[in-house]
Amino acid sequence: MNRPPTVDARRPTHAAGTTVGVSAAARRVLGLPDLPEQSEARAATQRALERVGGPVGLTVAVAPTAAFVAADAAAGLEAAFVALGLTALLAFAVRLARREPPGAAVAGLVVAGVCAGVAALAGEARAFFLPSMLLPVVFVVAYVVSLVAGRPLTSLMVNPLSGGPRDWCPYPALRRVYVVSSVVGLAMAAANLVVRVVFYLADEPTVLAAIQVTATSAFAVHFAVTLVAARRAAGTLTVPAPAPTPSYR
């Protein structure tokens, strides 16, 4: 004899039988409207932001640079080094308190130290941004080489998270996403490099700091958009038909 399906009386359900969370039930009891469902794009953007540390992580990452530029503008280069050192140590402590990987916390100190060393050797604040200008150069080269090799750079970063097949090359939809995304990434990296060089030559440390923050956020958004597009493409894939085998008579 078949038993009717049981329903957990402790958890309210919709009329269609789907379970309602405690928060949603409380909102209905209080007469509040339901919260809108989070879109896939917004969820992917949040995940991309989390990959760079979230709002707190981004703030901690840019704080030493902001302190250096602000102190240099207010009191000169020596004060900027002091402000940088104090802020970098504070950022290190915050990273450890947030239980981030110790390697990332140490890397933050090393990067701050290298940038400060270059600025000290050059005797000018703008030299602080010389080491970070190497990053867009690396990305430009990596994008070009990966596109020429037929393995777009974004495929290496996004495909393992998109749910796509390991060998995505036979699928035109995924290939299109990764090629277009890599071309966009190449253009962004090239523009980032050009703008940095222009304002470095113009001796504008404040603008260079703003570019550094903006570039980090822009690449996080680019990653999120690529991830959404790749997931949608992966969800529509069909297994390609096998190539016909030649018959020999």
From TrEMBL:
Pfam families tied to this protein: DUF3159
Entry's transmembrane regions: 52-71, 77-97, 104-122, 128-149, 177-201, 207-230
Entry annotated with the keyword Zinc: no
UniProt entry keywords in alphabetical sequence: Membrane, Transmembrane, Transmembrane helix
Source species, domain of life: Bacteria
InterPro entries: UCP010219
UniProt key word Transmembrane: yes
Descriptive protein name: DUF3159 domain-containing protein
Gene source species: Cellulomonas oligotrophica
